[in-house]
Specification:
single chain, about 130 residues, alpha+beta, Double Stranded RNA Binding Domain, six-stranded antiparallel beta sheet
């Protein structure tokens, strides 16, 4: 019983990292996350790991030297003026490391420069028993 409760608590825990919801003043294009990814790769030491558009939803994953498979994910929602940014935390600690916080600050700053009228709000992403 104790193992089951511990498993359920872990399944409903927070995803590691920092999350930001970016609300634009107008509906975004299907390539908004690719446009931002281009800006981020030109200003930070990041490279594109994955990019795709499916049913109007754009998804881009960026990596760095230390985490070549991905350190940052940008995802947009079809026909809505909002997209999300997830800065990964690989240390699996309860609070993000200084390096993760610094990267997130730089990403938020570049995002605000790219979309000056946007509202950027941090949020917590949780796992549920049936999925994220």
């Amino acid at each position: 019983m104790l193992i089951t409760l511990a498993s359920m608590a872990a399944a409903c825990s927070d995803y590691p990292g920092l999350f930001f919801r970016v609300r634009l003043q107008q509906p975004s294009s299907t390539t908004v996350c690719m446009d931002l990814a281009g800006e981020l790769t030109s200003k930070l030491s990041l490279h594109v790991v994955y990019t795709g558009v499916r049913r109007g939803q754009c998804l881009v994953t960026l990596g760095d030297r230390e985490h070549p498979n991905g350190v940052l994910t940008i995802s947009s929602y079809p026909k809505e003026p909002v997209f999300a940014i997830h800065v990964e935390e690989f240390a699996r600690v309860s609070s993000p490391s200084a390096a993760t916080r610094e990267l997130a600050e730089r990403v938020v700053s570049i995002t605000q420069e790219k979309f000056p009228g946007a509202t950027i709000v941090p949020f917590t992403s949780k796992r549920s028993l049936i999925g994220p």
